[in-house]
Amino acid sequence: MLEALEDLLKEFQKNNQKIQVRTLGMQNIRTGEAADKKIRKTGKEEMKMAKTSVSKTSNHLQEAVKGHFGKKVTEVFEKQEDVLENF
User: Fold this and answer.
1) Which of 18, 37, 50, 58 has the most crowded CB, counting CB atoms within 10 A?
2) Contact 73/47 with Cβ under 8 angstroms?
3) pLDDT at 35 over 90
4) 87 with 50: CB under 8 angstroms?
């Protein structure tokens, strides 16, 4: 009878450890998902700021530099804006 109780206790402890491991795994998954969302949000904000910066620089250079070189510089910055939009 004592052996049966000890076996039940061991089985209970084993199942308890399994539950604890699953719980930790689920917590880690949630933490990872939250971090992923935060990184995606930050990335989008950084992309928006970079695009705005490139656009402002392009406009300032377009006003400052005239002629064929000015057009080429503007084209390059417009391509960079497209790259940032499609990233």
Assistant:
1) 58
2) no
3) yes
4) no
Burial class for 38, CB neighbours closer than 10 Å (0-12, 13-18, 19+): exposed
**Are the beta carbons of 51 and 84 closer than 8 angstroms?**
yes
List Cβ neighbours of 22 (8 Å cut-off, separation of 6 or more).
Answer: none
pTM over 0.90: no
Q: How far is CA 59 from the centre of its chain?
A: 30
Specify the higher pLDDT residue, 79 or 12: 12
Q: CB-based contacts of 74: which residues, under 8 Å, 6+ apart?
A: 58, 61, 62
Cα gap 83→75, rounded to integer Å: 12
Residue type, 50: A
Q: Where are the beta strands (DSSP E) in the chain?
A: none
